[in-house]
Design brief:
single chain; 219 residues; mainly alpha; Zinc Finger, Delta Prime, domain 3; 2 domains
Length: 219
């Protein structure tokens, strides 16, 4: 059982958390804001963000495909000090008004809990055994098979014309890759990864602050 906690106004913390998320699910903006402010004034703002990162996948998912990036941007703004509670309220409003779908959470539950049942008799499909696999190499499969089967796209967009489609087979089979040359590797051996903070590192910082404050944190 979760440890008993109370908010500033005497509510059970976990019940407030539940009311917050379920208000967002139902699109009850004022209720969601009320419960969010209750958590905020009780010192649980880091926990609020944790819940919102859960909600954007659990209750919205691909119904609003750009929303996770927007929530992440608002969280970074909040952490920077520039956005502050404006960013917090902005995120809550977006979540309340977003189109909803439970497909991500439903898919997670079904596939993780039924994985072993689904795996019985499941075979690697033939089209996956291309030149990049040991089985594909044994069958002497090359780029012709890869472009016919391995690179086949479902739901291919008609929005963009691909001017390289007609040339790519020739380029990959008849020309060398310059990035595989010793000169290229020598020139780029000192390239370093970006120092931009990742969501994981931001959560780590938030969790350390949460632990110091004695509040629930992301796990």
């Amino acid at each position: 059982m979760p440890m008993k906690r109370q908010t500033e106004s005497g509510y059970d913390f976990w019940e407030v958390s539940s009311a917050f998320q379920k208000s967002i699910r139902r699109g009850l903006t004022d209720d969601a804001l009320f419960w969010a402010v209750e958590l905020s004034l009780s010192g649980y703002e880091n926990y609020l963000w944790k819940r919102m990162f859960v909600i954007v996948s659990e209750d919205i998912g691909p119904a609003e495909p750009n929303l996770p990036a927007t929530i992440d941007a608002l969280y970074r703004s909040y952490l920077s000090g520039w956005g502050g509670r404006l960013a917090l309220v902005h995120a809550i409003l977006l979540l309340c008004q977003a189109r909803k779908s439970r497909i991500v959470d439903n898919a997670l539950i079904v596939h993780y809990r039924k994985h072993h049942q689904k795996s019985k008799g499941k075979r690697i499909p033939d089209w996956a055994l291309d030149k990049h696999t040991s089985a594909g190499k044994r069958m002497n499969r090359g780029f012709e098979h890869f472009f016919a089967e391995g690179a086949k796209l479902a739901n291919k967009t008609e929005r963009y014309d691909d001017p390289y489609d007609a040339e790519v087979y020739e380029a990959i089979t008849q020309y060398d890759d310059p990035t595989e040359t010793p000169r290229f590797k020598a020139l780029n051996k000192n390239a370093t990864a970006s120092k931009t903070p990742t969501p994981a590192s931001l959560f780590d910082a938030a969790n350390r602050a949460a632990e110091q404050a004695g509040e629930p944190h992301s796990e």
